[in-house]
Write a structure and sequence with these properties.
This protein starts with 8 loop residues before the first strand and ends with a strand. It is of the alpha+beta class. It has 10 helices and 15 strands. A 5-stranded mixed beta sheet has the order 1-7-6-4-5, sandwiched between helices. The protein has a 4-stranded mixed beta sheet with strand order 8-15-14-13, with helices on both faces. Helix 3 packs across helix 4 and helix 7 runs parallel beside helix 8. The radius of gyration is 19 Å and the shape is globular. The chain folds into 2 domains: about 170 residues, Thiolase/Chalcone synthase (Peroxisomal Thiolase, Chain A, domain 1); about 140 residues, Thiolase/Chalcone synthase (Peroxisomal Thiolase, Chain A, domain 1, 3-Layer(aba) Sandwich). Bound molecules: oxa(dethia)-CoA.
Amino acid sequence: MTQTAFPRFTRIAGTGSYLPPRRLTNAQLAAQLAEQGVETSDQWIVERTGIRARHFADDGVVCSDLALHAARHALEAAGRQAGEIDLIIVATSTPDMVFPSTACLLQQKLGIAGCPAFDVQAVCSGFVYALTVADSMIRTGAASRALVIGSEVFSRILDFTDRTTCVLFGDGAGAVVLEASDAPGILATDLHADGRHVGILCTPGTVAGGKVLGDPLLKMDGQAVFKLAVRVLEESARAVLDKAGRQDSDIDWLIPHQANIRIMQGTAKKLKLPLEKLVVTVDEHGNTSAASIPLALDHAVRSGQVKRGDTVMLEGVGGGFTWGAVLLDL
Ligand code: UT7
């Protein structure tokens, strides 16, 4: 049995992301929707959400394909080989198959075998859930070097006749390589769910008897989600700061789930953070569910915005209803 030194912590060794090349601006999407009699506009989408474009995967490209690109970029940034990974967790609500998990399919595509690999399903909170699980496993010595990925092909579950949802989402993937460390790293985590709100954001269909049963397309009560998101994002931010013994003013960067600029700015305001400390990428990729936080994190790291040693607050919120936060020193 390997001897593990305690206390041990989790640090991010590298980040990566991937957006499929097919990019649709609001105007291009609006023109396509107009052909089907669905009316929307660039102005409405930008004003209500901050989204300017999204990326859609081509037919035949699946969740694990996007995850593979993001994982390779993160491994490269960490200076590691796939064979050095001893845990894979994929956060997704748009897996390749009912089973096996996208994590196992990714493991195969990475050309490795043996380490545990599994999916986490917490919709848009999936990445903070997966990060928290990986952190727990690393702290207890169950893993030492993990690949944690958020990957989604939400375009596959959109109802393109429903303008209240189809303009909001996109496809993409983001990844981190986590390593055991004798100093943090991840300072504190905070996760929640409230199943009383399952109906406000869901894709209720399922597969049974060789058929799709129920509606397999995304449904959302946008206003209900909006109100709940604003409240729980503040609560979770406060909870994770308390757990870490830190203050609002210690946050160098807030990286919330990238769904709506108004929700993100509202959260920053409640935490008394200047808007310059808010990482925003929703304009470029829309809501990519579990992929949005690692996509934004990777963008911020690669653009030089977020640097080693900065204190970063990650916050997820989404279907379930689920929400949570991770506070870390990069
Ligand atoms: O990933 C999980 C987290 N998800 C979220 O955070 C989403 C949270 N919710 C939201 O971001 C917002 O509620 C939306 C962006 C979904 C909607 O924004 P809103 O300001 O709440 O708009 P609304 O639903 O109140 O709709 C206002 C108007 C309505 O028309 P009427 O009834 O006032 O005539 C809608 O029919 O905007 C209309 N509308 C649109 N118009 C043009 C709704 N969607 C569109 C559209 N284009 N795409």
